[in-house]
Design goal:
The protein is α/β, with parallel strands linked by helices and 248 residues long. It is 35% helix and 23% strand. The chain is built from nine helices and ten strands. The strands form two sheets. A six-stranded mixed β-sheet has the order 6-7-8-3-9-10, sandwiched between helices. The protein has a four-stranded antiparallel β-sheet with strand order 2-1-4-5, covered by helices on one side.
Length: 248
């Protein structure tokens, strides 16, 4: 489902590469934790997968499509099948929760219909069902800015699901949440991944949560893949090595 082949990215000439020869494959339905210290290259890796960052070398394919070679409408089409969840939620604070969820379908509407909020009835029904699934039934009319952090992240997850993605990427999706809320959001993400057969990669700082919810780990440090394998083989000694290695 997702393949990286010798992916390298350097943001400025002379800088250390943010990614250096990164290669791995994630199969359909896998749930993977992306581990590593701040500045290791995790966010760059995720952005290469969804086409927000174009590598200097190497290739990224998602569901058989070469994302690195795609541009314009091809890239836009590829992104429709890649849900993305961010640490900062990226909601539109002044808009209602329901509209924020439906925004996951914006790319399928002409601009004028999206601007006027002329949604298909089926999309409105699906958005309501997704809000119920993430535990926010009855909050469709609340403004996004009125929600707690955990509620905002659940709206962001529902918005990502509204895309009907094949792939779900999370860039530190629980790091801004308190421990209890973070665990409940991780449980939700795992449940949705299982129910929908999503290929899921979550960048996580909390190793305890990664061990509890993710069967596989990929560890990055200084832009290089240091480990790729079962989570139950990620020992404390290996973690010490991963997090003591110099960042990119």
């Amino acid at each position: 489902m997702i393949t990286l082949a010798n992916v390298t990215k350097r943001y400025r000439p002379g800088d250390q590469p943010a990614l250096s020869g990164a290669s791995f494959t994630v199969g359909p339905g896998e749930l993977v934790a992306l581990l590593g210290p701040s500045g290791a290259g995790k966010s760059t890796l995720l952005r290469c997968i969804n086409g927000l960052v174009r590598p200097d070398a190497g290739r990224v394919t998602v569901a058989g499509q070469d994302v690195t070679a795609a541009s314009g409408r091809e890239l836009q089409g590829a992104r429709r099948h890649i849900g993305m969840i961010f640490q900062e939620f990226h909601l539109i604070d002044r808009l209602p929760v329901l509209t924020n969820v439906i925004s996951g379908r914006f790319g399928r509407y002409p601009f004028w219909r999206a601007a006027l909020g002329l949604w298909d009835r089926q999309d409105v029904t699906e958005a309501r069902e997704l809000l119920a699934r993430v535990g926010l039934a009855g909050m469709e009319g609340a403004l996004a800015r009125e929600l707690s952090g955990g509620q905002r992240q659940r709206v962001a997850i529902a918005r990502a699901m509204m895309q009907e993605p094949q792939v779900l990427l999370g860039d530190e999706p629980v790091s801004s949440l308190d421990p209890v809320t973070a665990r409940s959001v991780m449980q939700l993400l795992k449940s949705l991944s299982t129910e929908r057969g999503l290929t899921t990669i979550l960048s996580l700082h909390d190793v305890t949560l990664a061990r509890e919810f993710c069967p596989r780990a990929i560890a990055v440090s200084a832009g290089r893949i240091l480990y790729d394998g079962p989570m139950d083989q990620v020992t404390d000694d290996l973690l010490a090595h991963i997090y003591s290695a110099p960042a990119a």
